[in-house]
Amino acid sequence: xxxxxxxxxxxxxxxxxxxxxxxxxxxxxxxxxxxxxxxxxxxxxxxxxxxxxxxxxxxxxxxxxxxxxxxxxxxxxxxxxxxxxxxxxxxxxxxxxxxxxxxxxxxxxxxxxxxxxxxxxxxxxxxxxxxxxxxxxxxxxxxxxxxxxxxxxxxxxxxxxxxxxxxxxxxxxxxxxxxxxxxxx
Length: 185
Known about the structure:
alpha+beta
């Protein structure tokens, strides 16, 4: 019974780590990657649609992303969406494709991105702590309902705390890796 609670906590904490991975992918380093544009939404005939669903994205060079829309009338909407996405990118089109050059990061922009990474990491830590709180509450309710003994509750609380510490440490190491990636020249 306690193992079910712990497994659920582990699954949810892992979900917070996966969400952090996804958010870190949106932070650009000096290299072009199509994942930088994952959060860009295009107004596709009145429906917000991810860029990857209205255009073919490719990286022909290390400092360039090319978006080739399936519908040529969407070029202006794609350009506008990329400009307004606050990614620091300035797309240009030639009537057929949208070229998105990836500029070298300035020191100021690197610091901004590092701050953003810290915010993402803190959100993930908060999510992990919330999962711990939920797990602890479940165990306390089970003890109150006489479903488990006090010893079982204590063991469960210790196990959940170990899981929490492990995931918080993992978030710290992911943040450290992303920081070094961003600050690398």
